[in-house]
């Protein structure tokens, strides 16, 4: 039986382009982001992949990316579950600030720690561990059982909610996850073993 799980980070958003902390704010995709999403769909189609169910967050950039991917796959209208659990990490008081301005104010190192560390939350926001504390249970109780039952599953979400998920799939530690960066609009294809570990991982780059 096929146990297929594909993760894709949304295409470039207006705030990615403007270099702003985004979190739970809801900017749309840029034109480039739309193209990235379509290209992700075309790459999945070229790899012969199709899906039985899709999951996304409550944020427009992920939902729109999913819609564009499904259009390219000829799967418009596929059953889709939208969940706040899959939202981007809440950036708290950093939301809407320019990342370079933040570096100037708090220093390069502090900003890097807020952006990539496992357990240091930005002021008023979520650490990656906090994000995981909602992503992991949702994965275990809702997404993974479907995958294990042969439902070919697509998840369109965000840099940090997907980093949290990939910690589990790729067996990353709080130290090794610091170096994990996810490109926008690049599908990551997982095939799982019967014990839920990863049998195969493929990154569908352009
Ligand atoms: O601003 C954000 O919400 C995220 C993703 O774009 O940024 P970062 O790369 O700092 O995690």
UniProtKB/TrEMBL annotation:
Annotated site residue numbers, Transition state stabilizer: 158
Pathway assigned to this chain's UniProt record: Carbohydrate degradation; glycolysis; pyruvate from D-glyceraldehyde 3-phosphate: step 3/5
Binding site for substrate: 9-16, 22-23, 61, 88-91, 99, 115-116, 159-160
Subunit details: Homodimer.
Record-linked InterPro entries: His_Pase_superF_clade-1 (IPR013078), His_PPase_superfam (IPR029033), PG/BPGM_mutase_AS (IPR001345), Phosphogly_mut1 (IPR005952)
Lineage of the organism: Bacteria, Pseudomonadati, Pseudomonadota, Alphaproteobacteria, Hyphomicrobiales
Catalytic activity: (2R)-2-phosphoglycerate = (2R)-3-phosphoglycerate
Top-level class of the enzyme under EC nomenclature: isomerase
UniProt-listed PANTHER family: PHOSPHOGLYCERATE MUTASE
Task performed by this protein: Catalyzes the interconversion of 2-phosphoglycerate and 3-phosphoglycerate.
A matching Pfam family: His_Phos_1
Annotated keywords: Gluconeogenesis, Glycolysis, Isomerase
Family: Belongs to the phosphoglycerate mutase family. BPG-dependent PGAM subfamily.
Active site feature: 10, 88
Protein name (record): 2,3-bisphosphoglycerate-dependent phosphoglycerate mutase
PROSITE patterns found in the cross-reference section: PG_MUTASE
The enzyme's E.C. designation: 5.4.2.11
GO molecular function: phosphoglycerate mutase activity
Biological processes annotated in GO: gluconeogenesis; glycolytic process
Coiled coil: none
SMART domains in UniProt: PGAM
């Amino acid at each position: 039986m096929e146990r297929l799980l594909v993760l894709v980070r949304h295409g470039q958003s207006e705030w990615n382009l403007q270099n702003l902390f985004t979190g739970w704010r809801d900017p749309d995709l840029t034109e480039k982001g739309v193209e990235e999403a379509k290209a992700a769909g075309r790459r999945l189609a070229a790899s012969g992949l199709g899906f039985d169910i899709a999951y996304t967050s409550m944020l427009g950039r992920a939902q729109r990316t999913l819609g564009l991917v499904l259009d390219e796959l000829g799967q418009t209208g596929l059953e889709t579950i939208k969940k706040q659990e899959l939202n981007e990490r809440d950036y708290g008081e950093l939301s809407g600030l320019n990342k370079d301005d933040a570096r100037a104010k708090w220093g390069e190192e502090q900003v890097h720690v807020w952006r990539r560390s496992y357990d240091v939350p930005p002021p008023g926001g979520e650490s990656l561990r906090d994000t995981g504390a909602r992503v992991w249970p949702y994965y275990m109780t809702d997404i993974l059982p479907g995958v294990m039952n042969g439902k070919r599953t697509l998840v369109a979400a965000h840099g940090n909610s997907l980093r949290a998920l990939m910690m589990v799939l790729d067996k990353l530690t709080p130290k090794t996850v610091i170096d994990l960066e996810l490109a926008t609009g690049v599908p990551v294809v997982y095939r799982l073993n019967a014990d839920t570990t990863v049998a195969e991982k493929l990154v569908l780059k352009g």
